[in-house]
Amino acid sequence: MSVLEERIPVAKYHGTGNDFIVVDAEESVPDRPAFAKTHCNRESGIEDTEGDADTGTEAGADGPPRRGADGVLFLALEGRYSPPRVVMTLVQPDGSVAAMCGNGARCAAAWAAERTGSDELMIDTPAGTRRAAVDGGRVTIEMGTPSFHPRDVPLAGDEELVEADVEGLTVTAVNTGVPHAVAFVDDVDEADLEAVAPPVRHADVFPQGANVVLASRNDDGSFSQRTFERGVEGETRSCGTGAVAVVAAAKRLGLVEGDDPVTVSPPGGDLEITVPDVGSATLSGPAAYEFETELDVAVRSR
């Protein structure tokens, strides 16, 4: 058996700097984990060969586009439905599959809106079906109801984890599509995220691991955010599920009251979050097309 290489068309999108390779699921990619590991690599992965990627200021980019990506979105468009449906599978740089990604889902909605002309879409994810609304370059998506229940996070124990010490951080655990350990600190910019996050991400209390989110409350009631993402195994410029987790945890701890939108700002730009007392949370922010190219896919032949 030999291994041949074929090339497939892909697109690149980002949501506040959280960047994704987008692949139409009709394209044949026999080994999706290997594809993601190869092309998401920050040193040797996908690059904009034309040099005209629309990263914009909201991507937090003040230089040339980065190589690689935070994940690959395999999208299957089912346009016969009304509103159109998109089946989204996110394969992360380590080859694992994430149940939900807020910024990825917004990019999926933007991709599908371009192809269908519809400003309302349904995004099917392993965490459930989410309704998305597209308004120009801005996308709002339902994120489901955050859960602190040990079974949902999940946790190793049978008690909720609220303001508990885990590997030196005081964290609150919440699932907003994927598990998060949220720690409120005085200033996220002063924190050594790469040092403090990995022990929490791999702590025994999180049997499936967790994203680690640091947040600090600003004078105007908004929050600054930094996230160490499970599957990326490093800091990302933005994390949509993490931004929702910040507001959900803040409400749980009494730092936020009511159902009004709250601004959460990761390094890549501003996101607007609502976590109502009853019903689904929402995530709103920009989703931007960057460029199109072709990438190699390994295909086995006899």
From TrEMBL:
Pathway: Amino-acid biosynthesis; L-lysine biosynthesis via DAP pathway; DL-2,6-diaminopimelate from LL-2,6-diaminopimelate: step 1/1
Acidic residues compositional bias, start-end: 46-55
Enzyme class: isomerase
Keywords noted in UniProt: Amino-acid biosynthesis, Cytoplasm, Isomerase, Lysine biosynthesis
Primary subcellular site in the record, as a coarse category: cytoplasm
Family per similarity comment: Belongs to the diaminopimelate epimerase family.
Protein's name in the database: Diaminopimelate epimerase
